[in-house]
Predict the 3D structure of the following.
Amino acid sequence: MAEQIEGRVSSAVDAWLRWLPRWHVGTARGRTRPCRVCLGSPVATAAGFDHDVPHAVQHALLNRLRQIVDDDVDEYTARNLPLVTRELRLAEAQEARGYRPDQGLDPEFQGLDLDPEPEPGQPFLFTLAGLAGTPSDDGVVPPDPTVVGAEPAGAVPRLDDADALFDLDDLDGWLVSPDSAASVVTPEPVVPEPVAPEPAAPEPVEQPQAGSPAEPEYSDEAKAALRREIALAGDHAEAVGTSLCLALVEHRPRIAEAIDRLVAPQVDELLAELSRALEQPRSR
């Protein structure tokens, strides 16, 4: 497992190093609450981050590394913990499958925040995080009104055959003037074909309510077994986190060199510009 974690950590650091040149200090925004991923994280200590490193730079790497732990724990749970896997699948089945903007991204963008920090008084029209989980249309495509036989929603109801037969717009140019000696041929009425009666709708089946015999409650033994599996998942997550931190220590020189070359000059320039904009204190 340690070798597998080392390879994933190396790939995550490589992706972060490819993303770091695109970051600029002008894109940073002040946070209104502490970040749960970065505040007091042992992974930040293993990476060698200090208080001078901007939060956006730290968060981009720590979020990628957290995804490694989550993926490994998911694989371990699906392979060794059947009760926890069953509970997770039941929870997923209750939620409709919807839009997932964080899936299918390039490695440089995996683990990043979907939306920037909101600015006071400047609300978003929509956010990707808000669209996440929106129920999809399950592949249902609305009918095309240009296709013969398709009836779009809200369409005007059809006319009867007799009404369509005597539409003046359709008969324009074919009507005979009253002064003409030609006799007017009266069209024969069209007899509609008999329509088979629609089958009666099936009666609704009553769904079993919660607590009914169809949904038996867990026994004490099943609850104890589920707690043991949850504890095993927590122990595995802790072991993976420890292996990740040990593997990340090996990349400290690369991380420090990239910060000194790409991040520190931008921070120094920002501080110098701020010092020039400040007024000198008045002498008494």
About this structure: Residues 137-178, 180-184, 205-216 have pLDDT under 50 and may be disordered. The helical segments are 2-19, 42-47, 55-80, 82-94, 128-131, 161-165, 220-249, 252-277.
